Amino acid sequence: MDIAFESVGNISDDIKDEPEFTEHNFKRYRLPRANKIQYKKICAKEQKNASLKKIALILQKCSSDRTFDEEKVLNDCSEEVKEVRLRWRRRDEAKKRLEEFEDPEDILKIKCERLAQAIAQAQHLVVYTGAGISTSAKIPDYRGPNGIWTRLQQGKDIGNHDLTLAEPTYTHMALYELYKRNILKYVVSQNCDGLHLRSGLPKAVLSELHGNMYLEVCKNCKPHKEYWRPFDVTENTSRYFHKTFRKCYMCNGPLVDTIVHFGERGTLQWPLNWKGACKNAKNATTILCLGSSLKVLKKYPWLWQMDKPVKKRPNLYIVNLQWTPKDECANVKINGKCDEVMKKVMDCLGKNLSLFIFILYIS
Ligand SMILES: [Zn+2]
């Protein structure tokens, strides 16, 4: 009893100590204007979300199962109903964009012929490559359903992949062949696997925008001293930590890898060679994108000559199994595996190259 009495006494004391809630006091405790607006916005957003959630639950029901009141809510909130349906549509589209899809054989053949013709007639062909060109070399791609990024997003293990055992794929060799025939002028690659160089493509016609796992450099030496290794130099490196723990034999400075991770800004001249990529993107009459989701490359407007009027921009051809943000701008989008597409394209070029070149010279 004593305890109960004591506690009641305390509560009343607390109440007594509280300041009287007059209009004058309220003004003193008022939130700053900016916070008040922010608070109102948050409340409105929460209210709207709750209302959309309620409507979504009703819409999920079969119309025959809805009560009279639920039907009334749908009728009274036509704007919210529209918004829920729009959100569902967007969610389905985003899901669909991640799906891999292959063109039927007959369509693939026609598209490959068109691509072969465009390649043969290109005055300055530049190719942008992504992880999709190395998947047949047993290197996992990045954003595909089983790619490294996708698996990391899903909290799954990415396993061990010994990239040093990878060999250039048919696509790498086809690009080298096009370079030798003086058709392909430049390659901009997002891959770090070094397979373009191993295919024979010279360093001078290649930008490895995200680095090369076989190259470590000394930044103390000017120009940077390069060390090409027959092994993966990134074993001890990570995002924001690039020291490989080996030393430069010229100056004894620390060696660093050349990999550009997410959120990092690559500044090395080699193997990134942004200057070469800029110059060739500017001169490109035809751009071929192979095995890239283009989610990173789309952020560089100069790669697509976006400063020029639409009609003066280069012809664009895209080969990728998934949707890319540049599909709508492409002359032809081929949903196919890079090696299969390039085999068909090289077959066409082998048969028809001299004819295409003849047409080009007389036109
Ligand atoms: Zn050095």
Highlighted features:
363 residues, alpha/beta, Rossmann fold, 2 domains, four-stranded antiparallel sheet, 11 helices, 10 strands, 12% strand, globular, disordered N terminus, disordered C terminus, binds zinc ion
**Could you say which overall geometry the principal axes of the C-alpha atoms support?**
globular
The secondary-structure element order is HHHHHHEHHEHEEEEEHEEEH
Helix proportion of residues, in percent? Answer: 40-55%
Distance between the termini: 108 Å
Total separate domains: 2
CATH superfamily of the largest domain: TPP-binding domain
Helical stretch tally:
11
The CATH architecture of the largest domain comes to 3-Layer(aba) Sandwich
Q: Could you say which structural class the secondary elements and strand pairing correspond to?
A: alpha/beta
CATH topology heading of the largest domain: Rossmann fold
Write a compact overview of the structure shown:
The chain is an alpha/beta fold and about 375 residues long. Helices cover about 40% and strands about 10% of the residues.
Strand-helix topology:
Layout: H1 2-17, H2 23-28, H3 33-60, H4 68-76, H5 78-98, H6 105-121, E1 125-129, H7 148-153, H8 170-180, E2 184-189, H9 195-199, E3 206-208, E4 215-218, E5 225-228, E6 243-247, E7 254-257, H10 274-283, E8 286-290, E9 315-319, E10 332-334, H11 338-362
Parallel strand pairs: 1-2, 1-8, 2-3, 8-9, 9-10
Antiparallel strand pairs: 4-5, 4-7, 6-7
Helix pairs in contact: 3-5, 6-11
The structure holds zinc ion.
The site of zinc ion has 8 residues, from loops.
EC number: 2.3.1.286
Organism: Henosepilachna vigintioctopunctata
Pfam families: SIR2 (PF02146)
